[in-house]
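Before a colleague's protein record goes any further, I have to sign it off. My question to you is simply how this chain folds and whether the tokens agree. I do not need a full report, just your reasoning and any doubts. This is what I was given:
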Amino acid sequence: MNYYLGVDIGTSGTKTVLFDVKGNVIASATEEYPLYQPQNGYAEQDPQDWANAVLHTMAAVLAKSGADKNDVKGIGLSGQMHGLVMLDKDNKVIRKSIIWCDQRTAKECEEITEKVGAERLIEITANPALTGFTASKILWVRNNEPENYAKCAHILLPKDYIRFILTGEYATEVSDASGMQLLDIPNRCWSDEVLEKLDIDKSLLAKVYESPEITGKLTEEAAKQTGLAAGTPVVGGAGDNAAAAIGTGVASDGKAFTTIGTSGVVFAHSSKISIDPKGRVHTFCCAVPGCWHVMGVTQGAGLSLKWFRDNFCDAEKQTAKGMGVDEYYLMDKEAEQSPIGANRLLYLPYLMGERTPHLDANARGVFFGLSAMHQKRDMLRAVMEGVTYSLRDCLEVFREMNITVDDMMACGGGGSSPLWRQMLADLFNCPIQTTKSKEGPALGVAILAMVGTGAYASVPEACAAIIGTDKTCAPQTDAVPVYENYYQLYRKIYPALKDQYAELATL
């Protein structure tokens, strides 16, 4: 039997999963590693930690499965996006990787906007200059650690450093490269114009492939450390969200997924390039060759419910422990007792500022309409509804861009809540489905490895054969117009508070 490895290099740890050609899990292993925060707003990781975790988990799944190493036909890599890995001429890591959630580069973002031009930057890279993206991190090292920048011979993304460890090749692929802010998104190649204006040497960057293309083969050294066969092909793979899309079957027009994790994501596939001139959503090359995806992000999605739980739900925590159930299950049941609209209580989930559609670091959370008659269950429901309104905001931007969505998958922790799925169905006014497989990014890149090594002819064909749906939640006809009225009111609150948010930030 043929097997395929999906490796997901995340922020908290690496998960490696061995699949058969039908997408069934044969074995999996996870290894965690630390996050370093040397200063407020900084976030770094040691690339050697990722490398160790990948090599260990690859060896572990092969040992657990009992599979013959020669039956593993391909490897796909997924990873946290936007991280900066710098190597010297001897391929040694120069400094810890500055990762996606690091916020130190505000000045560099201003520098990028000034040098490239705000409109031109969006035309080429499909996004405004953002602190999370890699380009501003490169400039930060140049501006603040010139001795490290002078030593730099290669710039790689986190998963592409792992590719180098496994194959010895300097390579990336279009979906992850899209998050560097150096890629010409419409033309799927490095932008000579942006590189020239920012004075970044193109020779520092890796060769760009499409996601299912073979980018290299396992070296003898990597084979020895993992127990796999030397020469095993490694395909391009994908950034984490692009990989999750393939792992949930979002590989053709009309298909989308919503993730409610710490942050919330609404992600839609598009066979045509579509860029929001206001920069409210990301447009990236996706893992299907010749196609793109658009992605809206709300910063405080699952985070809002976790914040409420941690501060106001001690009783639910204790009861859940006694009953042997998840505390979120009890919170769901409590929120269900409040009607749609939470008895005229609205919540804005801007605990960490906001990204889509309001690019505003000063925005903050709000309960609007709070009165003496409200109970905890109303506040709980308002939090869940407020997050859902925020995700609907993302969908509205897609509609402005003529991207239609008629098939929506739900994933992430919030996707396991029947109440939250029903809210999504009613507010999006389309069925919400979950997938049978919960492996997401690891399955997505394993599918890319299957396509790259010839097991399937195309990514959409592989998704159709492998991805199965589990539950479907249809919109409730009577609930849709009620939610719509509340949503239209919700949309008016942020504009009314925008100036006051800025004022609050100065106090």
Residues 298-432+476-506 form a domain with the Nucleotidyltransferase; domain 5 fold (CATH 3.30.420.40). The chain has two domains: 3-248+440-469, 298-432+476-506. The first helix runs from residue 47 to 65. The CA atoms of residues 163 and 169 lie 7 Å apart.
